[in-house]
């Protein structure tokens, strides 16, 4: 678990955590004023070309993140599918801008590597703001100064607990958004609403693009 500092309060975040669990992974790559990106996650992926590493890197990352979701939470799985589809569509729609961004590197990076500069969705996230109960979220994005908390409807807590969680997030100055199934009809509107500029220009927002970090791979 990693502690972040926002306003006057300490915020602790973990992800991949079941109710009552200690958390799957810690966030140890956050940079000041920078979003946490897919290429900074401590998520194990098979190496390209390995027996279980066939297919696009983005597909491998999507599968790895889905394994961190509650397997019964179909809305969470769908949210991730739509997010990666949106990222791939953005790359396809902006091929010339991506090519210009990568041109100075002389072929060192491929367009698919740029996808990993996008903000990272942290599945089954948990925020600790003090008090006896953590706030459990389907997803959380770290925006560089503060997180964005994402709730998916139908909520999986009581209305009383949901109101209390929202109040605690408000008090800490953390933006939160609750998405119904009808909100997930148009990908661009959805993710612009959730993330705004950090996701709309992800393909050229990182000076040196990167695929998954080498230590994010498992040596199969």
Short description:
With 220 residues, the protein is of the alpha/beta class. Helix content is 33%, strand content 19%. The protein has one domain.
Question: Your description of this structure?
Answer:
With 220 residues, the chain is an alpha/beta fold. The chain has one domain. Helix content is 33%, strand content 19%. Strands 1-2-4-5-6-7 form a six-stranded mixed β-sheet, covered by helices on one side. The longest helix is centred in the middle third of the chain and has 20 residues. The chain starts with a strand and ends with a strand. The N terminus and C terminus are likely disordered.
What count of domains describes the coordinates?
Answer: 1
Beta-strand share of residues: 15-25%
Mean of all residue-level pLDDT scores = 78
Shape: globular
The share of residues in helices is 25-40%
Poorly predicted parts: 1-9, 214-220
What about the largest sheet? 6 strands, mixed
| Strand arrangement, major sheet | 1-2-4-5-6-7
The Cα radius of gyration reads 17 Å
DSSP summary, beta strand count: 8
Q: Determine the number of helices (DSSP H or I, runs of at least 4 residues).
A: 8
Structural class: alpha/beta
Order of helices and strands: EEEHHHHEEEHEHHHE
N-to-C span: 27 Å
Summary tags:
single chain; 220 residues; alpha/beta; 6-stranded mixed β-sheet; two-stranded parallel sheet
